[in-house]
Amino acid sequence: MAPNGFRQLQLNFSGMGCWLALAIGFGLVTTVGVGWLLKSLLILVVLLIAVPIVLVVGVQFWLRRNLVEGPCPSCAQPLTGFRTIPMVCPSCGVELQAKDGIFARAAAEGTIDVNVINVESVRTDAEDTDEVTIVDVDVLPPADP
Length: 145
Description:
The protein is an alpha+beta fold. It is about 35% helix and about 30% strand. The strands form 3 sheets. It has a 3-stranded antiparallel beta sheet, with no helix packed on it. A two-stranded antiparallel ribbon has the order 1-2.
């Protein structure tokens, strides 16, 4: 170093940060008061308790309005689904739509939905292998889109 150069003052403040923060905190508490600290902690605790309760009640209300439970109209498999979302029965593969709290078949426009009541197979000739199948059906009302 140069003997005629500018001398720098070096101070070491390591370890003073904790004491400085404590002094500032003490100054705020004595100047402003403790009331704001207690009120803010109370508000924080109330929010931490109230928000989960409101969320649970809201989700339960929404599920009661939108969840549909019932059997499949084709195979009677018990199902659970949402009111607005079409679904497919995992057992028989029929497309379903929830209407008025029950599941109904979702049929395309112009489709005639039937229930098979009776199926008989009749042989017309003893020596001929032709068979005639008689099917009795019950036509169901059309599905609403």
